[in-house]
Design goal:
By secondary structure, the protein is an alpha+beta fold. The chain is built from 16 helices and 45 strands. The structure holds beta-D-glucopyranose (BGC).
């Protein structure tokens, strides 16, 4: 029997604040009990009634296999109206399933209704920079509330309470976007909170990314000098009447208990400062009127991605050391988030929490790598029990130093501390495991790296004075990220900022949102605003999203930005087929760099032109997918020209790379710039270079992500396996064997003798080198997708059953079509394999060389439809 596992609108079964112009439906077919299930027809209905008595949209039976991103042509939703949707399908055995459980959606109001609320700002003349303010207003309701929707946004970041209850558990709303272009708002269903006639709305407002300190340049007020709040509450009463309550001149404000709050430096909270029950509207001193600031309502857009939330609570592992001055605690995991302190402090008693990722050789916090970031939280008690965690800041740390709590016994200190892990609350989609513990730890470190750096935007690191959306880091880790978690909405949101910050000439800033703007030339002593391998995110990211989720509308939306980037490169210099001018990061932080340099030995223009060819190739594929046939042809021709020029410039007459670095050999193979004979020679040389380093890598940011995949792809899989399993420096497992619980920025962030690599660039939570996670799924466990797979519809299983280092592996991935899974285990000369293929998708199984089974000759590809399979292979 088939069924529908879930039907979603824009990725969710319950959707508040949908953009009416971008609605599509997707469903997952449950075909677990059958094999080879393919959808033949679908039937989609939309109704204002939960039982679908009167459908306002009825597709009738549509002969189509499409189950992802299906548009309901002609469905024009009204703002704030709830619609229910459901679907049923017929499969290739003519079986019709039951109607799905209904989902619902409500559109955002801004498409039709103009915003009424005003942007209100607290009077912060007497408070220090980076202080937090409270804003509030009390209303009286007219009767019993049937439905209430609260729309909120801010210049800064806000938290809201209604009648002293939190409106949401989301953190850092409205999120970081290119504020000069668009600002997100959130929609909350607050019906259940409006139970009393008296309604008090209280808000806490901090500077956040809008106005607070950003980057090592210590710039402040990058988007404006006034933080502000925006609130619009739409109420429908039981009697059908409506009321709209808004932020306006009549709201009051005063300083909050936080005299300081910023992302880098932490928070200072004084429990004595905040009046009791302020959010309930209780009388107290010090309230002033707010000021109205110029409206930003035209900038408002609905929130696209999942919010940041606390997703896990960690209890401290142990006290590392304690003396009269401080207690050092090990959280057991390099985490990103905040510490919650539950304790009773005397009136005026102060506790200081300092955070660091590692300890130095003396067992004290190592904070030099935080550079200008303080990562310090100060709490002052008021004599009563307190329960406090920083509200507008987060830290990257494994170790915590507590100054204070001296009276408490060790167990009491530990019991008063909880680590709250926070990040964008994406759905987990992928899992990997194998028979080697150190590889499993590496995989866990990759997951933690993603969690710690997917905090509203993809950041380079979560601890020092950066935490910025470096474009290069984002695209090199993205393929791994997309297996681990559903990043569809997370990256859609970030790409909107990328497109907004792209320069009129098509160049793409190095960080998005672009807060380096005009300072970049000062920093690098160069007028260049961009770099290859970084700006390429403009093409690689939308294309990867399309391949992963099959969202053509999103690809179409980013087409202008993708095209503009390639045209930018095309127009630099005198020769359209070469990029050989301006600043380039090249293979950043590669180990073959000269001493004291961050720039790898691979010529930067070799790197630039390899990427130029690659993104032009992707652009032609994107044009093809969008049906832009003429563009597809044009960019294919460009690709051919750039490729030919690359070969001319960077290969000698014997077909060898002129630069003899690992990365110089990796990139042309990864981007398919060479013919078969050249590829064979270059791959062999790459293998020799790796072997010559005794199976160690020599690569940096741009070579490393492609290294293992290229070796596996071009006939040197065993070399890739040896590299991955290498435990001495430099290697992925070196840091694991040093006790790392996240991915390090530098291969020897901590050296074997316990000393540090460099204070300046020494993050212990940098996801970039975690890009090897993709290889673990694809080439070790063997869960992969064909190059022409769209949204996960063409699976490739290549179980590495002959692996010399690992005797079993498994991976699963929740694709848009449903769960894909593989598990293999070798026992002597036999290997057992189990596979899972979701309905409406197809798979091929590659029988490894040297192995065979019944009807499965070695080296053969077996085509599989949906279903679960158990197979036995034998070694020849
Ligand atoms: C960041 C990197 C980034 C690089 C570019 C660093 O400071 O942490 O990850 O890509 O700068 O130069």
């Amino acid at each position: 029997m088939i069924g529908i596992l879930s039907v979603t609108c824009n990725g969710s079964t319950a959707c508040l604040g949908v953009d009416a112009n971008a609605i599509s439906f997707s469903w997952v077919i449950d075909g677990a009990e059958q094999r080879d299930v393919m959808q033949q027809r679908y039937h989609l209905q939309i109704s204002t009634a939960p039982h679908f008595q009167d459908c306002i949209y009825d597709s009738q039976w549509v002969a189509s296999g499409q189950s992802q991103h299906v548009a309901a042509a002609g469905f024009i939703p009204l703002p704030e109206q709830r619609y229910f949707f459901r679907v049923r399908v017929e499969d290739n055995a003519s079986e019709v399933c039951a109607w799905s459980q209904p989902g619902w959606l409500e559109c955002a109001p801004d498409a039709v209704t103009p915003w009424q609320a005003q942007w209100i700002s607290p009077d912060d003349r007497d408070t220090p920079p980076e202080s937090v303010h409270l804003l509030r207003k009390t209303f009286h309701l007219r009767g019993k509330v049937k439905r209430a929707r609260l729309y909120a946004s801010a210049l800064g970041i806000y938290q809201l309470q209604i009648n002293e209850q939190d409106v949401s558990d989301a953190l850092f709303s409205p999120g970081w976007t290119s504020y000069q272009d668009h600002i997100q708002y959130q929609v909350y269903d607050v019906t259940a909170l409006l139970t009393q006639a008296r309604l008090a709305i209280g808000a806490r407002l901090a500077e956040g990314w809008y106005k607070g300190e950003l980057s090592w340049l210590k710039r402040r007020e990058l988007y404006g000098d006034c933080k502000a709040l925006f609130i619009q509450l739409q109420i429908t009463y039981e009697d059908g009447t409506e009321q709209r309550l808004i932020s306006d001149q009549s709201w009051q404000c005063r300083p909050a208990g936080q005299s300081h709050s910023s992302f880098y430096h932490g928070e200072r909270w004084d429990a004595r400062v905040e009046p009791r029950h302020w959010a309930a509207g209780a009388d107290s001193e010090g309230w002033r009127n707010v000021e109205i600031v110029p409206s930003r309502s035209a900038w408002l857009v609905p929130q696209i991605a999942e919010p940041v939330r606390v997703t896990e609570h960690l209890t401290p592992r142990a006290i590392v050391s304690r003396n009269a001055r401080r207690t050092v605690i090990d959280m057991g995991q390099n985490m990103v988030g905040r510490v919650r302190l539950r304790a009773t402090l005397q009136y005026g008693e102060r506790v200081v929490l300092r955070h660091a990722e590692v300890l130095d050789r003396e067992g004290e916090l190592y904070t030099a790598n935080l550079r200008g970031a303080d990562q310090r939280v100060e709490i002052v008690g008021n004599g009563e029990p307190l329960d406090y965690a920083a509200q507008f800041s987060f830290q990257g740390f494994r170790y915590l130093e507590i100054q204070g709590l001296n009276e408490l016994a060790d167990e009491r200190v530990l019991a008063s501390i909880t680590g709250e892990v926070l990040h964008t609350d994406m759905q987990r989609t992928g899992h990997f495991q194998c028979s080697r513990d150190d590889i499993n730890q590496l995989y866990q470190n990759i997951i933690w790296g993603q969690r710690g750096n997917f905090v509203d935007i993809p950041t380079d690191c979560p601890q020092r004075d950066e935490r910025l959306g470096w474009t290069g880091d984002a695209h090199i880790f993205m393929r791994t990220a997309a297996l681990n978690y559903n990043i569809h909405h997370f990256f859609s949101k970030w790409l909107r900022s990328l497109a907004a910050d792209q320069k009129p000439d098509g160049s793409v800033p190095m960080v998005i949102p672009d807060i380096l703007r005009d300072y970049i030339s000062k920093i690098w002593g160069d007028e260049t605003y961009t770099s290859s391998g970084w700006g390429d995110a403009a093409v690689i990211c939308p294309w990867t999203l399309y391949q992963t989720y099959g969202d053509k509308a999103l690809l179409a939306k980013h087409w202008p930005s993708m095209k503009a980037w390639v045209h930018y490169i095309h127009a630099t210099g005198n020769d359209p087929w070469v990029w050989n001018s301006g600043f380039q990061f090249g293979d950043w932080l590669a180990l073959d760099a000269k001493p004291d340099s961050y720039f790898g030995a691979t010529p930067v223009y070799l790197v630039a032109n390899a990427f130029y060819a690659h993104v032009t190739n992707l652009l032609s594929q994107a044009a093809q997918a969008l049906g832009l046939i003429e563009d597809a042809r044009r960019y294919r021709e460009w690709f051919a020209q750039i490729k030919a020029r690359f070969v001319r410039d960077w290969l000698n007459e014997r077909g060898e790379m002129k630069a003899d670095t690992q990365t110089a050999h990796i990139l042309p193979l990864a981007f398919r710039l060479l013919d078969e004979a050249q590829s064979a020679g270059v791959a062999q040389r790459l293998h020799e270079l790796v072997a010559a380093c005794d199976y160690h890598l020599d690569t940096g940011f741009l070579g490393t992500p492609y290294l293992c995949p290229v070796l596996s792809e071009y006939g040197y899989h065993q070399t890739a396996v040896r590299l991955l399993c290498q435990t001495t420096f430099p290697s992925w497992l070196f840091s694991v064997h040093q006790g790392a619980t996240t991915i390090w920025e530098h291969w020897d962030g901590i050296k074997s003798d316990g000393s540090f690599w460099s204070d300046n660039m020494n993050s212990f939570n940098h996801y970039a080198y975690g890009a090897v996670g993709e290889w673990l799924y694809r080439y070790l466990a063997g869960l992969d997708f064909a190059p022409d797979s769209v949204g996960g519809n063409r699976i490739v299983f290549r179980p590495d059953v002959g692996n010399t280092e690992v005797s079993s592996a498994e991976a699963s991935y929740l694709s848009p079509y449903g769960e894909v899974a593989i598990r293999w285990q070798r026992e002597g000369a036999q290997a057992r394999i189990t596979l899972k293929v979701p309905a409406n998708a197809q798979a091929s199984l590659l029988i490894p060389t040297g192995w065979h089974g019944e009807f499965m000759p070695e080296g053969r590809q077996l085509q599989l439809g949906s279903g679960e399979y158990a197979l036995l292979l034998e070694q020849r």
